[in-house]
Amino acid sequence: MSSPPPTDERHRSGPSFLTDATRWEAVRGRDATADGAFYYAVRTTGVYCRPSCAARLPRPENVSFHVTAADAGRAGFRPCKRCRPRGVEMEAGRDARRSGGR
Ligand SMILES: [Zn+2]
């Protein structure tokens, strides 16, 4: 069965990040337009990030990609404290969990 590639992704008229290669390129370039399109998780740290995270670039062999933050969480990763990947998905409830001070 050869199904056509998914075209229902909702990007804001940006490039599509459907392959690991293009996703990795976005991470390397800290491409903010990729935020929300996918998340990357780092096996060595157990944390997942937005593509534009300012954290140090992980080794590609330790990285896995997830379409949603929830998906990354289910895979056993925690949201990065620096880029707050969950904040992207839950724009509606910003401070659902009140973070004390700062
Ligand atoms: Zn991060």
What report would you give on this structure?
It contains 3 helices and 4 strands, in the order H-E-E-E-H-E-H. The protein is α+β, with helices and mostly antiparallel strands and 102 residues long. The protein has a domain at 20-87: DNA Methylphosphotriester Repair Domain (3-Layer(aba) Sandwich). Strands 3-1-2-4 form a 4-stranded mixed beta sheet. The radius of gyration is 14 Å and the shape is globular. Zinc ion binds next to loops.
**Mean pLDDT across residues:** 82
Helical proportion, percent range: 10-25%
Under CATH, the topology of one domain can be stated as DNA Methylphosphotriester Repair Domain
The low-confidence runs, each spanning 5 or more residues with pLDDT under 50, are: 92-96
- Sheet bearing the most strands, described? 4 strands, mixed
What's the overall geometry?
globular
Bound small molecules, which ones?
zinc ion
CATH homologous superfamily placement of one domain: DNA Methylphosphotriester Repair Domain
β-sheet strand percentage: 5-15%
Summarize the structure.
With 102 residues, the chain is of the alpha+beta class. Helices cover 20% and strands 13% of the residues.
Question: What is the secondary structure topology, with strand pairs?
Answer:
Blueprint: H1 20-28, E1 39-42, E2 47-49, E3 63-66, H2 69-74, E4 78-79, H3 85-89
Parallel strand pairs: 2-4
Antiparallel strand pairs: 1-2, 1-3
This protein binds zinc ion.
